[in-house]
Amino acid sequence: MRRCRRSRRCDIRRSAFYAKGGYAWADIRFSIAALGGSLSESKVLSGWTVGAGVEYMFAPNWSLKGEYIYADYGSER
Hints:
Structural class: mainly beta
Low-confidence stretches: none
Radius of gyration: 22 Å
Mean pLDDT: 87
Number of helices: 0
């Protein structure tokens, strides 16, 4: 196993691992106008979300972040 000593590339103290989750909503609006007529629809969906990510500070005041977020708004029938 390789150990990281005085190496900036593998300094875990510069990393932040996190998880998040909670309530989610989406305000969906659709509108189209053609040939003198128009059609519009609006819908609000609610559900839940969960995610995780990592952020790495590679220089003072600079970081790189990657995350995954999953949202579930239920199903319509």
